[in-house]
Amino acid sequence: MSLPTLTAAILEFRDQRNWAQFHSLRNLIVSLNLEASELLELTQWKSDTEMAAIAGSASVQEALRDECADVLIYLLLIAENAGIDLEEAARAKLVKNAIKYPIARSYGSNRKYSDQTGLEHA
């Protein structure tokens, strides 16, 4: 399903319930962050090793899937509300990031672009 098709399905679901009245841009952004926090909560107090070990669990996979879906739904609603084409925005951001993070300086590094001065890929 494409992003526009998915967005249309989300809008139909919302409109059938008369929820658009609650979906101001501010409310949607708050809701996105609440859902992202629920996604983050799934990792609370767990090491990377513990997360890798439980990632195969059906209940954990379902929880991850549900929280990821909630984040995506709110992101699509925000983009629709703000008139943002997410596919184009993502492409444009990749171009900006390629400039900020050239391969020669960024390969294998987790440093932010502003901290990469003088780093060179060997």
TrEMBL record:
It comes from Candidatus Accumulibacter vicinus. It comes from the Bacteria. InterPro entries: dCTP_Pyrophosphatase, DCTPP. This is Nucleotide pyrophosphohydrolase. It holds the Pfam family MazG-like. The lineage of its organism: Bacteria, Pseudomonadati, Pseudomonadota, Betaproteobacteria, Candidatus Accumulibacter. GO terms for biological process: nucleoside triphosphate catabolic process. One of its GO terms (molecular function) is nucleoside triphosphate diphosphatase activity. CDD domains: NTP-PPase_RS21-C6_like (cd11537).
